[in-house]
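Thread amino acids onto this structure.
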């Protein structure tokens, strides 16, 4: 279902943003 795909994609973007911010802070 397309909604599930969008939720998965959004979660990956959130994870990537958190990783990037932690990398920049470190």
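Threaded sequence (26 positions):
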């Amino acid at each position: 279902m397309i909604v599930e795909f969008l939720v998965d994609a959004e979660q990956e973007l959130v994870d990537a943003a958190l990783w990037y911010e932690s990398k920049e802070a470190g």
